[in-house]
């Protein structure tokens, strides 16, 4: 067997086939598997432990790639745990009779919040009827009239006593709009008169009010005496009025006491049963006592509402706002908030516009996801939380403090304080689970010092899992579950085997399978549709292959354009013959939904000089740091290989022909080295072989990524021009385990139309590409016989010798030029000078 044949990879190693017999079934209908998450042992253990720990700060961050089942499994596990946990308390907000702007919160046993709200609504309706009846009763009016009569009699006695006292002092008391006025009295006799019959009539003493002019005619002493008595009467009047007001207040208190007694008698039958139901809740009992007093003080609103239905009366303060309600039969709550805005997360206070004014009350306090999950579990997506303004800060504040106060954003950001409700804070006991990518997890660790304090548990979801027989069977169970859940037609064992191989292709590894179950599910769904379109009873192998091919065809428009440019001769790629200093490299173009391999022509020119190896793309800044590293490694290899006994004097230019975008990665470093050695040695390279692989400083060919896409890409180019049987791709031997090639490539390899070689060193690759041995160095540092390294070193040595000879001649010419300058200064010409000039001219 020749060396080239020896390095060919057997077809069995180009794609790991599934052992159908080991699956042990003909169709998925025969499988009866337990539902489980496969391939995520580490994540399952971490989630189980994290949900069990009840200490503060032991919240979970589930890290993994989208589609790995991280959210679905975590949510199901949370629901399973929550079902076995007791339901947490309900929370209600009630009116604060002491501080109306600060609503009170009360916790009740699960399920009692709604029943209490219903009871309070019924209470209001019952009180309307009961209070109206109580105050329509004649007994209330009679008792009230009796109290008023006693008050009026007392007031009459006080006024009579005051008038009598004033009469004794020759004063009268007169009520005016401005109040009581004291007027002095004057007694005078009527003039003597005779009756009609001539009988004399005795004079009478008449009392009248003193006139102002009469008061002015009195002496100062008399005026002072009258003034003094007036002040005494005024003081007595004030005392009497004060007594009257006190008695009026007593009357009101008695009437209020009477009304309170009537109200209590009307309320007691309704409230007593309600208080009895919640007698163990001290806070609620205390609130009900204050509720009773407020109803007594405002019983008129109930009576008015009953007597006139058109009266708009607000009874909201006598009801409750069921803030959070839990079902006692459903265990702890599990909340998944997919839109975690600030208000959706921590709740809000809503406002209503009334005649141009914003109005709110405790009934407009709305819960957030944290309130609803209190006592249970809350699931959030990291990216969604971090995208929303203030949500992450609010979440951290709640987890650190253990309580949640509802505050609108305006209170945080407004420059002017605005009067609003200040609801009482609610204690929070919730297990928060955040699902996100590794990138976000490490960003939070670096930039948020509190992150590790509040998220102590990390659950890692791997992107792949081992491809063992057990795991293959487990994946078959996943397929069977897919069929069962969606009522689809079953898959045959051959179809399942193809899906398993597709799972390996997704991770480019024969020994691993992808855990991106969303992508696997897409293949299952589309294969099922193709089978139904064929009216098939089962999903077979051809349907899975068609689903994979059709899915690729929908997204490979850019790939087809590249290939069309090659077919039209716009892009030059030689797939036949040989050439010196030219080779086909392989690149991978990665788009959002599709990656494909694309061959690129790499060329090298070498010439004498001391500039070293220059990558043209690097000079124009089209290469990345990893690619530049590969180029420097290549230079180091040349120094180790050829500059141990002589210096290297070389100028070389390497270019990626017809590339106009950035280039990154070191997977072409071995390809560049082959191209450079061909240019130095003058040995042509095969153009029907494309090459990929990175190289280290010792000439070992190292693994690269995208090996399947690269092979299939070059295969597609060769197939479009016609396969010759000599074409193929040379890859690193360490990449053989990553081969999961398409069936078309396998078929061409089986027919001998295409080949894949695996090499471990640059020397092995040189022999395949040139047909000439790379050569082995002897003790003298030479490479006997015809070999690539021997020819390369000979080229370099000849350049060194030529360079040294040219330097010597140039040095001699420079010395002769100096002598000529001295002759010119003296004006003499010696025979020696003349001979030198002739030699120089010659």
List the helices and strands and how they pair.
Layout: H1 3-6, H2 20-23, H3 41-52, E1 60-63, H4 70-83, E2 90-94, E3 104-108, H5 112-136, H6 138-168, E4 171-176, E5 179-189, E6 193-194, E7 200-201, E8 205-209, H7 212-217, H8 220-277, H9 282-297, H10 299-307, E9 321-324, E10 334-337, H11 342-346, E11 348-349, E12 352-354, E13 357-359, E14 365-366, H12 369-373, E15 377-381, H13 382-387, H14 391-401, E16 403-404, H15 409-413, E17 426-427, E18 431-436, H16 438-447, H17 451-454, E19 457-460, E20 464-466, H18 469-486, H19 493-507, E21 512-514, H20 517-533, H21 541-555, H22 557-567, E22 578-579, E23 582-590, E24 595-607, E25 612-615, H23 616-619, H24 625-642, E26 651-656, H25 669-681, E27 685-686, E28 689-691, E29 694-695, E30 701-702, H26 707-721, E31 728-732, H27 743-750, E32 755-759, H28 762-770, H29 788-826, H30 831-841
Parallel strand pairs: 1-18, 1-19, 10-15, 15-18, 23-28, 25-26, 28-31, 31-32
Antiparallel strand pairs: 2-3, 2-9, 4-5, 5-8, 6-7, 11-14, 12-13, 16-17, 20-21, 22-27, 23-24, 24-26, 29-30
Helix pairs in contact: 5-8, 5-10, 6-8, 8-9, 19-21, 20-21, 24-25, 25-29
